[in-house]
C-alpha cells in the first residue's frame, strides 16, 4: 500500500485580507435621522390606522356571516360602513407601488391612475434587496421622492393596516391627510439626495469610492513546495 508523502505545512491555511472595489452600481437609499424617522412613522401609523380598523371589522363580520351560513341560520343583513376617506390617498404593497410608478406617464390622459409624490420603503426588512430595486429606479426616473426606513418598520406599518407586513407605501398627489409628512420630508430628502433638483455648484462633488475588505484564506506552502512549482 503506497502513501503519498505530505510536505511540511501542506494543507494549512492562513488568513488573508483583500481590498476590493464595492459594487459600483449600488445606490444607497435616502435615509432619515432616527428621531425624524420615529416621528414620521408614528404620524404615518396614526393616519393609516382607520384603514386597518376597517379591514379588521370587515374580516370579523365576514367570518360571523360564514358561521351563520354554515349552521343553516339566515344571516342578518348588516350594512357595511364605507371605507375611510384616507384609503384613496395612498397605496401599499410592492406590486401596487410599481404599478403606480409605471403608470405616471398616463396620468395626464387618465386622472384615475395612481400618481405618487412620496414612496416610503422598508428596505432594511426586505431580503434580498434586489426585490426593491425597481421601486428605487422608477422613483428616480419619475422624479418621485423616495425614502428608506429602518429595520422593524414593516411590522409597524402592517399592524396599522391590519396586515402581517407592509414592504412599501406610496402617498398620492394631493393627499390632504399626508400634507404634514410631505411638507416635513420634502426639504430633507431633496437635500440628502442628488436625484432631484439642480446642482448648487458648478463643480459637483463626486461620491467617494467604496472599498470593502474580504476575509479569505490561502494555503501555506513550504519552501520545498515553492521550489517545485518554480521548476515547473
UniProtKB/TrEMBL annotation:
Recorded GO cellular component terms are:
cytosol; nucleolar ribonuclease P complex; ribonuclease MRP complex
Location of the region described as Disordered in the Swiss-Prot/TrEMBL record: 66-87
Membrane-spanning intervals of the chain:
none
Gene3D superfamilies associated with the record:
3.30.1330.30
What processes does the entry annotate via GO biological process terms?
intronic box C/D snoRNA processing; rRNA processing; tRNA processing
Q: Which GO terms fall under molecular function for this chain's record?
A: ribonuclease MRP activity; ribonuclease P activity
Recorded protein name is Ribosomal protein L7Ae/L30e/S12e/Gadd45 domain-containing protein
Q: Which organism is it from?
A: Basidiobolus meristosporus CBS 931.73
Amino acid at each position: 500500500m503506497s502513501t503519498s508523502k505530505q510536505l511540511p505545512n501542506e494543507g494549512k491555511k492562513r488568513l488573508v485580507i483583500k481590498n476590493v472595489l464595492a459594487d459600483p452600481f449600488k445606490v444607497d437609499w435616502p435615509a432619515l435621522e432616527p428621531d425624524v424617522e420615529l416621528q414620521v412613522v408614528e404620524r404615518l401609523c396614526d393616519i393609516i390606522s382607520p384603514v386597518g380598523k376597517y379591514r379588521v371589522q370587515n374580516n370579523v363580520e365576514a367570518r360571523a356571516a360564514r358561521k351563520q351560513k354554515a349552521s343553516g341560520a339566515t344571516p342578518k343583513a348588516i350594512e357595511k360602513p364605507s371605507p375611510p376617506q384616507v384609503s384613496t390617498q395612498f397605496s401599499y404593497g410592492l406590486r401596487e407601488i410599481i404599478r403606480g410608478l409605471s403608470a405616471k406617464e398616463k396620468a395626464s390622459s387618465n386622472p384615475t391612475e395612481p400618481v405618487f409624490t412620496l414612496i416610503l420603503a422598508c428596505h432594511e426588512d426586505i431580503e434580498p434587496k434586489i426585490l426593491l430595486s425597481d421601486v428605487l429606479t422608477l422613483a428616480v426616473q419619475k422624479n418621485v421622492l423616495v425614502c428608506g426606513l429602518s429595520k422593524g418598520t414593516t411590522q409597524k406599518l402592517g399592524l396599522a393596516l391590519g396586515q402581517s407586513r407592509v414592504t412599501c407605501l406610496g402617498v398620492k398627489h394631493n393627499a390632504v391627510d399626508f400634507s404634514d409628512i410631505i411638507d416635513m420630508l420634502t426639504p430633507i430628502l431633496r437635500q440628502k439626495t442628488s436625484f432631484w433638483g439642480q446642482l448648487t455648484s458648478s463643480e459637483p462633488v463626486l461620491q467617494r469610492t467604496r472599498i470593502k475588505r474580504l476575509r479569505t484564506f490561502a494555503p501555506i506552502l513550504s519552501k520545498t513546495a515553492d521550489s517545485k512549482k518554480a521548476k515547473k
